[in-house]
Amino acid sequence: MNPPRHLDLVDLGERLRRKSHKLTGPRQSILTVLRENVRPLSNKQIHAALQPGECDLATVYRSMRLLEEAGIVKRFDLGDGLARYELLREGDDGHHHHLVCNRCASVVEIAECFTGELEERIARRNGFQAVTHRLEFFGVCPACQ
Q1: Rounded to two decimals, what is the model's pTM?
Q2: All domains of the chain, ordered by start, with CATH?
């Protein structure tokens, strides 16, 4: 799965407007940071990548919550208690998995999802419906070995 860096700000702004929100200067800056990165970023990482004075950390937190509710970003928890965000293409639910280095925290996106049959079997066995899952892998990357 390729990162959605090709998404332009006009498209992202239109998606926001359809949800009755504006593409403000801070939101535009935040979306630009997300477009330029291939890995999920935390609020603090997004803030650090912005130009000084462009936007305060509280605005980043508020904007990320709004962008998540609008379906423009997806939130991930990679096991360390930090929320991280990635841009979503329109119509994409963002379902994919990650391989995370335990030492340097580098993240590799994994497009394959092999758990569909397992998910269905678990749902049937326990009488559940509309079952989803989250699956992340952890290890030591080649650079840290």
Answers
A1: 0.70
A2: 4-87 (1.10.10.10), 97-144 (3.30.1490.190)
